[in-house]
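Incident review: delayed structure delivery

Summary: a single-chain prediction request sat in the queue longer than the usual turnaround. Root cause was a stuck worker, restarted by the on-call engineer. No data loss occurred. The affected request and its eventual output are reproduced below so the record is complete for anyone auditing the incident later.

Affected input:
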Amino acid sequence: MKKWFLICVFLFGYWGMAQAKGSVSGTVWDAEMQDNPLLFADVHLKGTSWSTKTNFRGNFEFNNIPEGDYILAIDFLGYETREIQIRVAKNSPVRIHERLNAKSMPGLSSEVDGVVQTPDPKTVQGTQGLRK
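Output delivered after worker restart:
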C-alpha cells in the first residue's frame, strides 16, 4: 500500500512540474495626465478567462499562466485600447509598461468659432413665481 502511495505522489508531482507556468505583470500610465498611474484599467489575456484591474499604483499581475503566446489587452473608458503580443515562459517573467492615450472624439471641437447661442426669451420662463 505504501508503495502505491509513493508512486501516485511521484506521478502527480511529475505532472504538476510538467505544467510549466509563468507570470505577467506591469504598470499602466495615463499619457494625458503627465504619466500618472491609471487606476482600475481593465487588463486581460484575450481568448482566456484571465482578467484583472490595475491597482492604485497602476500595477497589475497574473501568476501561474501556462506557457504560450497571448495577446494582452488593456482597456479604460475614454482611452484607446492597447493590445500587446506577449510570450509567457517558465522562469522568464513578462514585464509590461504601457501608456494609454485618450480617445479623440470625432465631430467634437474645442473651439467655439465665434458662435454664441442665446436662449429664446419666449421659451424661457421667469422666476417671479418662485419668490415670496
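Verification: The chain is about 15% helix and 35% strand.
Action items: add queue-age alerting; document worker restart procedure.
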